[in-house]
Amino acid sequence: MRRIARTLLTVTVALVAASSVARAQNAAPAPAPAATQKAVEVVMSTIFQQHQSSFSGLDLQMRVRMPQLIEGFSIAPTIEYWRNTSTLSDFGLEATRKDATLAALLRYDFKREGWQPYFGAGLGLHFLSSHVNAPSLGLNDASESVTKGGVALLGGINFGLAGNLDNMLELEYHGIGEQSQLKLNWGLAYKF
């Protein structure tokens, strides 16, 4: 995980340095336009994970259009959270699993009238934790936490509702080894 963080930091520093050198070489550089916020999305997720039944989660996504990107592309920072609790009173067992995710996606929106398909890819940082309380099995408040990085892929469709309000439906995949997640998302987007 530290290796991924160092690599991302190195790439970011290299891009900033290259941008500074390019600006210094131009005689009269024009000021770069600021990033413009494009949309905010509130999303409900149904999560499918290996060896688990489905459960629900919440996402908050923002799409930011950067003037340096090709038309149609945007950056989508995302915060996702889910919590799943199971209680088996007959066995004196209670288990809770949680995942809080920070992700950054590069997203491409196709130009269409009415409904608009899109796809994206990026990286996510998952803060996973599990807690089990089963005194009859000798597990008294046992817990484990781990932080994992993984790839994120998504594809979906936006449907215009009214004015700046859109409805969206998407399929999202987070590849994090044996805890990989497939999500069916539905939400509302407000475009600025």
Structure description:
- The protein is mainly beta and about 190 residues long.
- It has one domain: Beta Barrel (Porin), CATH 2.40.160.20.
- It is about 10% helix and about 65% strand.
- It has an 8-stranded antiparallel barrel with strand order 1-2-3-4-5-6-7-8.
- The protein starts with a helix and ends with a strand.
What's the topology here?
Blueprint: H1 2-25, E1 36-49, E2 55-65, E3 73-88, E4 93-109, E5 115-134, E6 139-162, E7 165-175, E8 181-191
Antiparallel strand pairs: 1-2, 1-8, 2-3, 3-4, 4-5, 5-6, 6-7, 7-8
Distance between the termini: 35 Å
- DSSP helical segment count: 1
State mean pLDDT (0 to 100 scale): 83
Q: Determine Rg (CA atoms, Å).
A: 21 Å
Number of strands: 8
Order of helices and strands: HEEEEEEEE
Write out the strand line-up for the largest beta sheet, numbering strands in chain order: 1-2-3-4-5-6-7-8
The secondary-structure class comes to: mainly beta
Unreliable runs? none
**Helix amount, in percent?**
10-25%
- Biggest β-sheet description: 8 strands, antiparallel, barrel
In total, how many domains does the architecture comprise? 1
Q: What is the general shape?
A: elongated
Beta-strand residue fraction? over 45%
The CATH class turns out to be Mainly Beta
Give me the CATH fold name: Porin
User: Architecture in CATH?
Assistant: Beta Barrel
